[in-house]
Amino acid sequence: MATGEAALADLDRSGTQSRALTRLTVGSAIGLFSLIVLSVVFIFPFFWTVTSSLKQPYEIFNFPPTVFPSVPQWKNYATVFEIAPFARWILNSVFVVVVGTLGVVFTSSIVAYSFARFKYRGRDVIFLLTLGTMMLPAQITLIPQYVLFSKMGWINTLYPLWVPLWFGGGAFYIFLLRQFFLSLPRELDEAALIDGAGYFRIFWTILMPLSVPALATVMIISFIGSWGDFLSPLIYLNSPDIFTIAMGLFFFQNDPDLGGIPTQHLLMAASVMTVIPCVVLFFAMQRYFIQGVVLAGIKG
Amino acid sequence: MKNATISRRRLLTSMGVLALAVPVLQACSSASAPAAAPTAAPAQPTAAKAAATTQPAQASTSSGPINMTLAVYAGANRDWMPRYAKDWNTKNPNVKLSIAQIDYGTMDKKSLAEFASGTMQDVLFSGCKWMAYNCKKGMFLAIDDYVKQKDPGMDDFLAATIADSKYSGKLYGLPFEFNSGNINVIYYNKDMVQAKGATEPTDDWNSDDFTKFVTKLTDSSKGIWGTDIFPGSYYDLGCYARSFGGDVLALPNFDKFTLATDPKTVQATQWMVDLRAKYKAAPNRAEAQNAGPMFPSQKLASTGSCICSFTSQKQSVATKFNWGVVLGPKGPDGGRGYDSFAAIWNMYAKTKYPGQSYDLMMALTSKEAATWAVLNDDQPPARASVWRDPQLNKDNNIYQRLADWVTNGKDQGPFPIPSNLRFSELQDKWANVSPALFYGEVDFNTGLQSIQQACAAIMAEPAP
Amino acid sequence: MTIAATDLVGRRKQLSWYARLVGAESPLEVRQAIYGYVFLIPWILGLIIFIVGPILACLYFSFTDFEGVGVPHYVGLANYVKAFTGDDLFWPSLGRTFEYSVIVVPVGLVASLLLAVLLNRAIKGISVFRTFFFIPSLTPPVALAILWVWLFHPSVGPINLALKWVGIQGPAWLESAQWALPAIIIINLWASVGGNTMIIFLAGLQGVPQEFMEAAEIDGAGRWAKFRHVTLPMISPTFLFNLILGVIGALKVFTTAFVATKGGPQYATWFFALHIYQQAFAYFRMGYGSALSWIFVVVLVVFTYFQLVFSKRWVYYGGEGD
After folding, report:
1. Do C266 and B112 touch (CB under 8 A)?
2. Which residues in chain C have their CB less than 8 angstroms from residue A34's CB?
3. Domain count across chain B
4. Is residue B50 part of a domain?
5. Chain C CA closest to residue B112
6. SS3 state at B384
7. Residue B25 included in any domain
8. C285: which chain A residues are within 8 Å (Cβ-Cβ)?
9. ipTM score of the complex?
10. What is the mean pLDDT of residues C178-183?
11. Which pLDDT band, with edges at 50, 70 and 90, does C15 fall under?
12. Which domains, ranges and CATH numbers included, belong to chain A?
């Protein structure tokens, strides 16, 4: 895994490598130009969305369309909260995401610890089985899970969205953390054992602190996955007051209510608000995020 | 890893804070989730598949407080529902009524899930689209006996809504909303009519008058079309098929799809298709995606809509131009059909308080509630007398005219639920296969046959 | 019957039955094995309750006519027969999904790789570009579909406006039966090309040992030859990884189609995952939906298996230390 770790380190340092191509050759000029053009192409949809969200209701349908709003209507963002229970949806999403991510982090790490540091019959078989479940599409468990939750009376509650995350969190995270734990030297464990520490204490006081980058990655990926999850809210949530933001946005698209006036501008504002938390989180945790994705890919 | 910048202490502290925040957030989020006491075992439908036995009305006085739940619409303005529910509650203080808000669009799935887990509300609403399915699954109690003992004024309900509230000959609820169809109330732009020197439409016009009218008002140089009338659902076409003397699903059992097999239906379809294919009086698929609502922005001389959009049309047109509203055109033989859509209050088959539930249903369908609902929430009522209310008709007597029409005893209107109850599938099939024909994108016969085949296949499926 | 075992200092020990059960060879190992099992419990429960149990239940349901409420009745293979012969949307939806995947996967992989190559230069501020490319993949799928519906609007959307600017009359995109599928493809490509796949490729590219590149240069290889003969083989394991994940992801396409077009117009974007959802949750045919889900899993497994088998021909593992 030497090349993998080197790759990680390289990815980290932004531009201070020794084998850098610092001369501006024709090739790299073309490359730079393409990068700029492509960046514009990639960001443009967001740009259009934001400018549309600041337009007035009929202005958005001007033909020929204007790029910038004549007078930016920042109040559109407030209007979204007035005509839909948007604050409620955000609260529901935050709850699901926070509780779910905590569950993922705690339970996937403890399970990964078991796979990485303990020896017992069946361990490798179960681990292979775990890997196998990564390939399964959600559809195969969807219907029976729905029936199960229905019998428990959990339809139209938030439980189905986060309770399963407290049972191991999912094969991907277990796999990621197990690989990470394997890379931590066993001597630390053994030293602590000799000192008389219990297995859980070793986990909690030695391994976990050293795994902060991997844990942060798990947290971020789980957060973004939970925040944007659509299929589960779609089938489990039926009342607008219990919707998460993904489901709420979908509902908002289909059921705007301003007495006949178009609501496209509000829909754009709502979409922007849905995307922002993910972008902010990414910026804050960029380094861990990239590391984590690379870890998954290189060691996969 | 050398780059860990968050110290262990900070990580653990933030996790601890989050863990503390969890119960707080949980309290906030789940406070509004309906906490109806779930029955212990999962509900097993007994022999009550289609013949739910009715229980004689019990005396409404009980010893302790009674806990009841009611499901009302979420979102769309239906403030009258909680208002009159609370009003009934004050008159019945021994009942603790909790109100759950449920989205109309997903109520069919939700009621299924609630029934399966035994958490269905005592009183809840259904659209006639799915009520029959729910009745077949034994979810609701038949209320014929209750009606015999306490008449809610059955004569005042429009006959079509009572028909929609029945399944297999029994009455399963009291209706509270009636709509005569999605596209058979025509709003038109009076200023454009005058400018073009056309004759203003009246309730007596027929399909030929309609075609002439919209063709005359179409002005492609200005990007204006005469109409936007389009059968988004099979029962939308059904209105006009009935006007022509045919039907899309054959009466009385709705067990056959007769779009292509009934000559009068074919005639009606041809008429509607020609509006685009021949006369170009209505926008095609791409043009119809145009900017927002086209009638208020004067890209349409008229729009085919429903009575339930009367107030929103008024609001969005405001003072931009003069406008009028008429009933949709009659067929060539003078008939005018409609597909009555009703929304109904039902009673949970396993409710512990059928007597009180029935009382609540009566309160929610009272004349007073219906009048308030139409005046304030723009919800067309199921009671004929409310349609004729003078205050409602003071600006425009379209309500009165519509009520007179649907009670004329001549024109037919029951909602066409397929006999095998496969409503969603039929409608989805229609929505995907039919636009090509109606937008004039395929040859008439080819389009007609492909819709016929696809929908007849759905009709041939077994019932659930 | 106990089996004797020797520990490190050669003393004969007697193993108890439970030690053998957990595969341990000494009391210490028994203790740690038990802890190992204990820490595994959340996942074991999770596997049973939320994964293996439901999978078996799904298999059971697929042989019944379960409609969500009531008692399921056994119907044998009727659901499977219906899927292959009696469902006029089964083959079209599979076909639609394959059509989609056949374009999205190769185009996506190549585009991600090209982006990674472009980004594989150590200029200061390169991470800014990397961020621009990455952000689309962070968008929640619902928001993605909604904003692209707006972008693709036939008359006032910027896509058609740009086309008009160069003199092309843009089609009705998501409202047109011919162009809805290409539109969905474009949406999903935009959202994924700069995302995780690209980052993984980037890491792979930067993991190509410098010595090989220098050796090739000494042999007189130009830029393209170096790429073809050194870089590509070295990143082939990464490529395989992204390929497998990419195929699985593409075959599961659901949310963008559901939110943007609801499977239309005229079933143009009626993907298989959408078909399963409609059958099971809109029409309540849960028995049939379960059968469809099983068919889906089999398709995925078959695809993955063939990819792995064929991968032996073109994947070069020489550079990996593991």
Report:
1. no
2. 118
3. 2
4. no
5. C69
6. helix
7. no
8. none
9. 0.81
10. 91
11. low
12. 84-255 (1.10.3720.10)
Contact A50, A269 (CB under 8 A): no
pLDDT digits (tens, 9 = 90+) for C147-163: 999 899 887 888 888 88
Amino acid at C11: R
**B433–chain C Cβ distance below 8 A for any pair:** yes
Name subunits touching A (3+ CB pairs < 8 A). Answer: B, C
Give the CATH number, domain containing residue B453.
3.40.190.10
Weakest mean pLDDT among A75-79, B51-55, C176-180, C226-230:
B51-55
CA B318-B105-B29 angle, 5° bins? 100
Please indicate, yes or no, whether residues B327 and B300 belong to a single structural domain of this protein. Answer: yes
The pLDDT value given to residue C321: 40
Chain Cα centroid distance, residue B123: 18
Give chain A's residues under pLDDT 50. 1-8, 10, 12-23, 300
What residues in B contact A157, CB-CB < 8 Å? 30, 33
Taking CA atoms, B37 is separated from B119, B351, B406, in Å, by 7, 12, 43
Cα gap B334→C26, rounded to integer Å? 96
Which of A227, A226, A187, A223 is closest to A207 using CA atoms? A187
Same domain, B304 and B433: yes
The answer to whether the Cβ–Cβ distance between C153 and B289 falls below 8 Å is yes
Q: In the numeric block, which tokens belong to residue C183?
A: 């539109």
Q: Which helix (H) or strand (E) holds B325?
A: strand B323-327
B-chain CB neighbours of C88 within 8 Å are: 454, 457
Q: Does B420 touch chain C (CB under 8 A)?
A: no
Check A240 against B74: CB less than 8 A apart. Answer: yes
Domain shared by B203 and B327, yes or no: yes
Shared-domain flag, residues B310 and B390: no
Q: Is C253 left (phi over 0), alpha (psi -120 to 50) or beta?
A: beta
Domain boundaries, chain C: 4-62, 82-314
A107 touches chain C (CB under 8 A): yes
Is the CB of B115 inside 8 Å of chain C's CB atoms? yes
Is the distance from CB of B263 to CB of B246 less than 8 angstroms?
yes
The whole-number pLDDT of residue B174 equals 94
Q: Give yes or no: residues B153 and B190 share one domain.
A: no
DSSP per-residue string spanning C120-143: -S--TTHHHHHHHHHGGGGS-HHH
Report yes or no on B51 lying in a domain: no
Examine the domain organization and report whether B171 and B189 are in the same domain. Answer: no
Domain containing residue B150: 66-179+341-406
B285 in contact with C at a CB cutoff of 8 Å? yes
Residue B55 has pLDDT above 50, yes or no: no
Chain B from 52 to 71: CB within 8 A of any C CB:
none
Q: Which class is domain C82-314?
A: mainly alpha
**Subunit contact B106:A242, Cβ cutoff 8 A:** no
pLDDT in tens, B98-134: 898 888 878 888 888 888 778 889 999 999 989 999 9
The CA distance from A298 to the nearest CA of chain C, in Å, is: 7
In this structure, are B316 and B226 located in the same domain?
yes
State the average pLDDT for chain B: 82
A14 in reach of chain B (CB within 8 A): no
Q: Does some domain include residue B270?
A: yes
Each residue's pLDDT tens digit, B267-319? 999 999 999 988 888 888 877 765 567 888 888 899 988 888 888 888 888 88
CA dist., res. C73 & res. C61, Å (int): 9
- Same structural domain for residues B293 and B430? yes
A235 touching chain C per CB within 8 A: yes
pLDDT band, very low/low/confident/very high, at B14 (cuts 50, 70, 90): very low
CA gap C147, A46 in Å, rounded: 8
Joined together, the tokens standing for residue B461 give: 């499926």
- Nearest-by-CA chain B residue for A212: B4
Answer whether A213 sits within 8 Å of B11, measured CB to CB: no
Average pLDDT on B50-55 reads 38
d(CA A271, CA C143) in angstroms, rounded, equals 5
